[in-house]
Amino acid sequence: MIHESQRSITIPVMELHQPIGSFFVGKIKAKDLIEISDFDIRQLTRSGNIDTYLGIQRRLNETRVDEIRKYVNTSDATFPSGVILAVEERSATLEAITCTSASGSVEGFYYLTLSNQPGEIDDEQTILYREIARVIDGQHRIAGLEGYNQFDAFEVSVVIFVGADIADQASIFSTVNLAQTKVNRSLVYDLFEYAQTRSPEKTCHDVVVILDREKGSPFKDRIKRLGTATEGRFDETLSQATFVRALLPYLTNDPVTDRDLARRGRPFSRVIFDDDKMIFRRFFLDEQDEKIVLNVWNYFSAVSDKWVRAWGTVEPGYILNRTTGFLGLMRFLRDAFIEVEGHGRVVESGEFSQIFSRVELKDDDFVKERYLPGTSGQTKLYHDLHEQAGLGRRRLLL
Fold first, then answer.
1. Hey, how many other C-beta atoms are within 10 angstroms of the C-beta on 120?
2. pTM of the model
């Protein structure tokens, strides 16, 4: 972005030394961060017959940006990790801060003043000024902060490299993003156990825990609570994350807002919603989580009774109790629940069994050759169940 006026900003920083060289760590207000930052998006350009890739950043994911815009306005919003910026040497001025402690003076603290530099001149002979900083890492957080409604109340930690050339910037970007290990989603959901307020995610977690723990449950000892195999168990075929993500849309279409309302001590919204989409929403609002547990329990008990071998096996190649089969069945749960007019009550296992009695699929049909891993296999299973159960074309299109 180009500006018609010059500007500068001063922030307190401390200097760190690492093998790559020296850099500065400080804090900056969200509004100032947005104004000084420029995203150097990597793209293909053509000059004559030569194709060249320029920039180091990936393109913004607008869905992710929208999620962050919503998140930054919640009561528990936080960006504890630093945004990484690069600035030219001519744009940075350091002024040492004298700090003292019981052991004497401390070095390495500064006021860092960042200023934008003159660039091109437009047709009206006006000097245009460049952005001050190039974003190495954190572009989605910065773009999302544009949706924050109290700029001065949100401060962001920043890591600033002064004078790093484009090769160093690219190296830093690659290292940061390749070295990061995504947090296991099952672990994230499991930590909702410690939440002090209700939320759709906490309820889904609680449902998973009960189904995995209770004797007689069709999921007894079958769920990888932390996403990885549990020591001493040998029949785990599903992760908690898979389970929660399949169940969550039946409770809410906006988990972030629901969670934030609870943290602020406000009631969940009871505006009119589609019962045929969020089939367990009313149970959640009325704090009747046990009815969610029982409906899911009874539904999958009917599944395990219908296909005893396919549900019980852990042999490679069978899909019914694994991600492909489970997600196809969870999608069909909504249709079956509506078919038996389950709204507001606990549907008995026998009622679900009556629906499955019309399905002609056999145990040996639930193999990966017929239902390929991924979305296509899940969708095919859902369609096969829907068609063979005779639930009609109308509900399939909902």
1. 10
2. 0.76
